[in-house]
Amino acid sequence: MRKVVDCREFPSEVNCTLAISGEEEEVVRAAAEHAVSVHGHADSKELRDQIRATLKDELILQHT
To answer: What is the mean pLDDT of residues 32-48?
Structure first.
């Protein structure tokens, strides 16, 4: 199942609205890179563990 993380769910000085979805490892990697480059966090195992803990299943709407 695809996973999603959404910056809107976390307090931010820049009011970030980015959402990232994909396979779990892709999302964790991309979200960590985003957290470092945009939000000034240090890339660490702890950061990636925190991101992984906030992942949600992506809801896919099917139109019929």
So the answer is: 96
